[in-house]
Design goal:
The structure holds two protein chains of two kinds.
Chain A: E1 8-19, E2 23-33, E3 37-41, H1 48-55, E4 63-68, H2 79-82, E5 83-86, H3 97-107, H4 114-124, H5 129-132, H6 142-154, E6 160-164, H7 172-189, E7 192-197, H8 200-204, E8 209-214, E9 217-221, E10 225-228, E11 232-233, E12 239-243, E13 247-251, E14 260-263, E15 269-271, E16 282-293, E17 299-306, E18 309-316, H9 317-323, E19 330-335, E20 340-342
Parallel strand pairs in A: 3-7, 3-8, 5-6, 6-7
Antiparallel strand pairs in A: 1-2, 1-4, 8-9, 10-14, 11-12, 12-13, 14-20, 15-19, 16-17, 16-19, 17-18
Helix pairs in contact in A: 3-4, 3-6, 4-6
Chain B: H1 2-16, H2 20-53, H3 59-69, H4 74-85, H5 100-124, H6 129-136, H7 141-151, H8 153-169, H9 172-178, H10 188-198, H11 201-228
């Protein structure tokens, strides 16, 4: 495999995958860097799981390609020995927790310090090895079973760890523990991570950037509008953040005054006239600074300057044409207070 | 009634006095059936896995054929194998007719559909997520086959026990291919058929008791294994 850039880990080109019905996943271009922690967000059925299964080489693209870039001096192990995916509906083998966690090492013929490594992986996943190692697969709660599945993958020390909805349908304690595990792995092992979730707030806490998906397509980056407080209580139970020379941004109650708010570029509406009687609480006047084709979508990314703050908005080609927007034009940005989510 | 009881008494006596003729038939039966079940599992378990795991054109038709062959009449297998291994048959040079090896070949053919069909059902009933889970954990194709069979071990063992029961209890194949030769190819079932025909009821009953004991032991061990794996 040829590497175009040693920091790149996954290179996706012109990927297409369709299955029964009329669902079609289309990813013209996606680059994931080594050590990056990428979130994939979007509603059910938007193609998150399919994209992850393709990235994990469980499915073969019907068109286009996915390249797993070799690290400089990296060994040429089998693909499935380099990356691993924790499936959304994870599955435990009908054997003990210990054997479930050890399975991946056993199939690699790697039995060195097996007990220590299994115990450490359980510990890393927030499970007390002494209590859990000897349990049978059916003697676990949903969250515990998910963490055993996670431990079975952590023990493999993969180059890339892919997690499909790791916190769906599990208890809060397990969700927080999994968040801690992921953050530890990021810092300690510099592992590439690709994580899907419909819970954007949780996802924001474990990833560096989040791509949004809708109807099988990547619609944009979620992380471009980052609103670092301070936030203070304002009217109608809303909280507000002042932006210099442009007024206030309203949001729902943040977890803390200095919480970072995230605004999905797709949730901002651009208007070319000032609107009255809006249901959305935020209306900001600004100037279009630049416009750019988002290179893996059919959307346009519009950068708007309001006061001293920049906002990125995503609009379709069609909308950009209808609005006659161009750099220098005055526009109004409209978005709901509830569109701002917390990291 | 007294006649029957007397037969049972004499039968037990024959077994415990170590009657060589009786024990020779038992040994041949065990030898043939154990070899044929081993061969059937080595061939049938992977074949059943393929039929139950992969989707390919003609899979349903092949499944239907093996399901039908579950009821294969022993005399038909005997007839076909006889045709092949008799001195005028295409495999006549192998001199399998009237040997224990011949019985093993024919019994293997007889019970192979049972192993294949029941293993395929066992694999089909496994959780759909198993295969993908094993791939993501890095298992090779061979490891996926072995782990899947192990996950379905109770159902696969049930297939093996069912197949073994058929091999040890059949009489048609042993009679036609083995020829019921005393000291050589006489099995429990052929001996029972012959001895009761001759009026030697005691030996028939003794062998019948052994046959029942074997069947019971095999099934009992399956029940214990089922309990242990829970």
């Amino acid at each position: 495999m040829k590497a175009e850039n040693t920091s790149h880990h996954f290179l996706v080109r012109d990927l297409e995958y369709a299955y029964s019905g009329n669902f079609r996943l289309q990813v013209p271009h996606l680059v994931i860097d080594r050590g990056q922690s990428l979130g994939i967000s979007g509603p059910n059925g938007c193609g998150k799981s399919t994209l992850l299964r393709l990235l994990a080489f469980l499915e073969t693209p019907q068109a286009g390609s996915i390249e797993l870039v070799q690290a400089a001096g990296g060994d040429t192990k089998r693909l499935h020995h380099r990356i691993t995916l924790l499936l959304q509906d994870h599955y435990l083998l009908k054997r003990s927790v210990f054997e479930n966690v050890a399975y991946g090492l056993r199939v690699r013929g790697d039995r060195e310090n097996l007990r220590d490594r299994v115990f450490r992986a359980l510990q890393d996943s927030g499970l007390d090895p002494e209590r859990f190692a000897g349990r049978k697969w059916h003697e676990l709660s949903g969250g515990e079973a998910r963490r055993v599945s996670l431990a079975a993958r952590l023990i493999l020390k993969p180059e890339a760890l892919l997690l499909d909805e790791p916190v769906a349908n599990i208890d809060r304690e397990s969700a927080l523990l999994i968040k801690d595990v992921i953050n530890t792995l990021k810092e300690r092992d510099n592992m590439t991570m690709i994580i899907s979730s419909h819970d954007q707030t949780w996802l924001a806490g474990v990833t560096d950037s989040i791509i949004q998906m809708r109807d099988g397509k990547i619609t944009g980056l979620l992380y471009e509008n980052s609103l670092q407080g301070p936030w203070h209580p304002d009217i109608d139970g809303l909280w507000a953040m002042d932006i210099q020379d442009a007024g206030k941004i309203y949001a729902s109650k943040p977890p803390a005054p200095y919480s970072r708010g995230i605004l999905d570029p797709a949730n901002i509406i651009i208007a070319t006239r000032e609107q009255a009687d809006l249901s959305a609480q935020n209306l900001l006047r600004g100037t279009v600074e630049s416009m750019e084709q988002i290179h893996y979508t059919d959307s346009i990314s519009v950068k708007v300057k309001t006061g001293t703050t920049h906002f990125t908005c995503t609009v379709t080609h069609h909308a950009a044409e209808n609005l006659h927007i161009f750099p220098g034009k005055t526009v109004w940005l409209i978005f709901k207070a509830s569109s701002i989510i917390w990291e | 009634m007294g006649y029957l009881l007397e037969g049972v008494q004499q039968g037990i006596g024959l077994l415990f006095s170590g009657n060589i003729e009786t024990w020779s038939a038992i040994a041949v039966s065990l030898q043939a059936s154990l070899l044929s079940i081993t061969a059937a599992l080595i061939i049938g378990a992977p074949a059943g896995f393929v039929l139950g795991y992969y989707e390919f054109p003609g899979r349903r038709q092949i499944r239907a054929v093996f399901d039908t062959l579950l009821a294969l009449p022993t005399v038909v297998v005997g007839l076909v194998v006889y045709g092949f291994v008799s001195s005028r048959g295409p495999l006549g040079h192998m001199e399998l007719l009237f040997t224990v090896s011949g019985i093993v070949v024919a019994q293997t053919i007889l019970i192979l559909p049972i192993v294949i069909s029941l293993t395929a059902s066992a694999i089909e009933s496994l959780d759909m997520r198993l295969g993908n889970t094993l791939i993501t954990l890095g298992a090779s194709r061979r490891q996926i086959v072995l782990t899947s069979l192990y996950e379905a071990k109770i159902a696969v063992l049930t297939a093996a026990v069912t197949a073994y029961g058929r091999a040890i209890s059949e009489v048609g194949v042993s009679m036609m291919i083995g020829g019921n030769i005393k000291w050589h190819t006489r099995t429990i079932t052929t001996a029972i058929a012959l001895e009761s025909g001759k009026g030697n009821f005691a030996m028939g009953i003794a062998l019948g008791l052994v046959l029942l004991t074997i069947a019971f032991t095999v099934n009992a061990s399956l029940i214990i294994l089922k309990k242990m794996s829970k």
